[in-house]
Amino acid sequence: MSSFYYDKSHEVIGRFVKADLDWDTVILTKNTTESINKLAHRFPFQRGDIVIATEMEHHSNDLPWRFRARVEYVPVDEKGCLQTVILEQMLKKHYPHTRLVAVCGASNVTGHINDIHYLAALAHEYGALILVDGAQLVPHRPVDIKPHDDPAHIDFLAFSGHKIYAPFGCGVLIGPRHFFQQGNPDQTGGGTVSLVTKEQIIWAGLPDREEAGSPNVLGALLLADTLQYLQQLGLERMAAYEDELTCYALEALSSVPGIIIYGSQPRVGVITFNLPSFPHAQLGSILCHEGGIGVRTGCFCAQTYVRKLLGLNTEQPLSYWSQKSPAHWPGMVRISLAAYNTREEIDRLAALLRQIADNANYYKHLYPFSHHQQEYLPPKSHHYDWRSYKA
Ligand SMILES: Cc1ncc(COP(=O)(O)O)c(C=O)c1O
Asked: Fewest CB atoms within 10 Å of the CB: 44, 152, 155, 288?
């Protein structure tokens, strides 16, 4: 019975992004990182093949390619937007060696949304396939990978369950069945075979041959259930709500004296910023301890992109940074908005940021850097009650 529901969950997940299940297979992994690594290992690269990635990728859609092919990066402009004209020039220049364009649907740093169907059509025009890292796009916008005979079809899509309100432990890789029927699976063992002798192996059908070992049955069922629930709530409605909240947040934050907000529209509900005189880790700590506001600080596993947005010299030797604490590496503060966030929460954040900006010296001294804990922390004697901050 559990096998039946486990198999069924693949269909539900595939249909969520409008996959044609006669053409595509849905492979369940641990997370987006594992999905992209699987694709990188399964891709039949030959000497001289090129993968075009971009400067805005999460490390998970950058590093796996470096060990498998020559990687070229499409630059971003000073706002962090992909320079698609340069992508086309690169595809022309490297024709016919580019096998894959690997690009995020939306950035986890600026939230910037790429026009994945335009990029797909461009890649196809120059004989390349496209992988969309959907870790940030799929949770925030309805995604339709389109029929395989449409030039704007997305060949491969990867995303993670835990970023779309499902529990940790289940990731997704969708791609053409014929692609995964070639060659051997990247991981072998139980579950991947139908018949074995000491000399011979007959691989199981898809997706089993690509899902080695005991499957995460519960993770798959919960992801499928979550996606069905989101469909009932209405994906368009949720995206519209998030969009409105994001515009509201951008406006509220821009009233904070001195704030620098990175990125540009269109974007999902991801906003990064800095207050000039505060290290990102210090500002994050103040927001946490003073306001009970959970933010992420640093470079969000996208160091190339963050350095570029900060206008830092990318040639700075890594040894320079490795001698410093991660709290002092280049970085930003990030808020992520979802369907459950409210305008009131944004008002509270903006009010606290204004309070911090207006009393910068006070907060800077109140939150010294602890060399022992490698964090900015308030003194134990500092009593705060975040409920007292009124918007
Ligand atoms: C754009 C993007 N790609 C890939 C990943 C990696 O996802 P996971 O950690 O679920 O493998 C993330 C995670 O933050 C992400 O935001």
From this structure: 44
**Residues with catalytic function:** 301
Q: Which of 55, 107, 160 to mutate to test the pocket of ligand 1 (most atoms within 8 A of CB)?
A: 160
Cross-strand pairs, 260: 274
Q: Check which CATH number belongs to the domain holding 318 and give it.
A: 3.90.1150.10
Q: Is 110 in the pocket of ligand 1 (CB under 6 A)?
A: no
| Number of domain units in the chain | 2
Asked if residues 9 and 63 have their Cβ atoms less than 8 Å apart, the reply is no
Give the Å distance between the CA of 362 and the centre of ligand 1: 36
Residue 54 in contact with ligand 1 by CB distance below 6 A:
no
Same domain? For 68 and 149 the reply is yes
> For ligand 1, is residue 33 a contact (CB within 6 Å)?
yes
> End of a domain among 203, 233, 263?
233
**Gap from CA of 163 to ligand 1 centroid (Å):** 8
- 228 and 287, same structural domain? no
What the block records as the tokens of 385 is 């009650």
Range of the domain at 359: 235-388
* Tokens at 211, concatenated: 């899902």
Q: How far apart are CA 377 and CA 380, in angstroms?
A: 9
Tell me the per-residue pLDDT of 176-195, one tens digit each, with 9 for 90 and over: 999 999 999 999 999 999 99
Residue 203 within any structural domain of the chain: no
* Sign, CA torsion 82/84/85/90: positive
Cis peptide before 139 (omega within 30 of 0): no
CATH number of domain containing 40: 3.40.640.10
How does pLDDT run across 257-305, given as a tens digit for each residue?
A: 999 999 999 999 999 999 998 999 999 999 999 999 999 999 999 999 9
Residues 115, 226, single domain; the answer is: yes
Question: Is the distance from the beta carbon of residue 38 to the nearest atom of ligand 1 less than 6 Å?
Answer: no
CA 327, CA 309: separation in Å to the nearest integer? 18
